[in-house]
Specification:
Length: 273
């Protein structure tokens, strides 16, 4: 596929991209791919299928807005800003983001309240990895790249598990020891690049700070300039819902109705004979 579409469902990217914005994504930039799921348009009703990702023209860079599959449920597509690229270290201090120790300038339309900053003494239990500070004070975290060797004896267990599970390894962690496919391992060679995503509405965004890193194969595309606010007016909501109802009707009932009609016509024709 060359293009993908997406509707911004939440305010996590405000005020850069508002809730309800319809976005066309360019999949060629980060590597076109065959369809990875079969689903009803604009819903998460469906299932994933094997797919192939083609070589990319370029990889996501720090500051790019990216469309990607949500790592914890690939039926969902997310749109966030790429902050950490493979091999980089990210950190948040008093809501300011640093990449490799260099300040990352706030996006022009980002929604960030610097009058409400969580102290370093506060630890958010829902952050990833657990115990890793809070949304405003996020200690340095390394984003692995393909070929990196992870020392499983010293790595944070949740950090290591995030990588191992995304690489589809059968793993278990028992009494401080890692077992991969039934064998004990003390190191692990990373098989793909990873990225760290954050929303521009930094105080109200469920992003990599809460659910972990995004592997390269989950990257879908880059939003194009084709964007319009789809969900801000009542008439637009009615139009979208009506369109969805027509699509559902066509998908599930139209063939059935045509078949019933054909059978009746055949019965009538047979009766006349």
């Amino acid at each position: 596929m060359i293009f993908c579409n997406y509707i911004i469902p939440t305010g996590s990217m405000e005020n850069t991209m508002m809730t309800g914005t319809f976005v066309i994504g360019n999949q060629v930039a980060y590597g076109a791919q065959t369809p990875h799921k079969i689903a009803i348009p604009f819903t998460q009703i469906g299932f994933t299928i094997p797919h192939v990702k083609l070589p990319a023209i370029k990889k996501p860079q720090t500051g790019d807005i990216v469309i990607f599959e949500y790592p914890q449920n690939r039926m969902f597509d997310y749109v966030k800003r790429c902050i950490g690229t493979p091999g980089s270290t990210i950190e948040v201090r008093d809501k300011k983001v640093y990449v490799n120790g260099v300040l990352f300038e706030d996006p022009p339309k980002a929604n960030i309240n610097y009058n409400d900053i969580r102290p370093k003494t506060y630890t958010n239990p829902y952050l990833w990895p657990p115990g890793h500070g809070n949304r405003d004070q996020y200690p340095p975290l390394y984003i692995p790249k393909k070929g990196d060797i992870i020392n499983l004896d010293t790595a944070d267990p949740e950090y290591a598990y995030n990588i191992l599970s995304l690489e589809k390894q059968k793993v278990s962690y028992q009494f401080g020891n890692w077992y991969i496919n039934g064998e004990r391992h003390r190191t692990y060679k990373v098989k793909q690049d990873y990225y760290f995503m954050m929303g521009d509405n930094r105080d109200n965004s469920a992003d990599s700070r809460f659910w972990g890193m995004v592997p390269y194969k989950y990257i879908k595309g880059k939003p194009t300039a084709v964007q319009f606010l789809l969900w801000d007016k009542t008439w637009k909501k009615v139009l979208v819902i009506s369109g969805m109802a027509i699509l559902l009707f066509y998908a599930f009932f139209w063939d059935y109705i045509k078949e019933r009609k054909r059978k009746k016509e055949n019965e009538v024709s047979s009766g006349k004979k």
